[in-house]
Amino acid sequence: MKVFGERVKELLKNSGNTQRDLAKALNVQPSTLCEWLNGHNEPPMQAIVDIAVFLEASTDYLLGLKDY
User: Fold this and answer.
1) Packing angle between helix 2-15 and helix 19-26, nearest 10 degrees?
2) pLDDT of 59 strictly over 90
3) Distance of CA 26 to CAs 30, 58, 63, Å?
4) pTM here?
5) Using one digit for the tens of pLDDT, what is the confidence trace for 13-34?
6) Are 62 and 48 in contact (CB under 8 A)?
7) How far apart are CA 34 and CA 68, in angstroms?
8) Cα angle at 37 between 56 and 18, to 5 degrees?
């Protein structure tokens, strides 16, 4: 899920939030989030939804299904 990690990182940067902020909001360890964003593990479906809500983006965008 390379696109997922790249897009989450981009949206975090643009929003002024950090990976630590997102991990805290998701109630996961920063190392877990890092594994998701680097493609070492896949996040559960609910985490993808929660990330989309946090970043005010669509899940389709995060997953690379749409370019907007």
Assistant:
1) 110
2) yes
3) 10, 17, 18
4) 0.94
5) 999 999 999 999 999 999 999 9
6) yes
7) 24
8) 55
Confidence of residue 46 (pLDDT cuts 50, 70, 90): very high
- Torsion angle of alpha carbons 13, 14, 16, 22, nearest 10°? -60
Residues constituting the chain? 68
Domain 2-62: CATH superfamily, name plus number: lambda repressor-like DNA-binding domains (1.10.260.40)
- Tally DSSP H helices, then E strands, for the chain: 5, 0
Residue 1 has pLDDT above 90, yes or no: no
Distance CA 25, CA 19 (A): 10
Tell me the C-alpha distance between 23 and 21, whole Å: 6
35: its two tokens: 């594994």
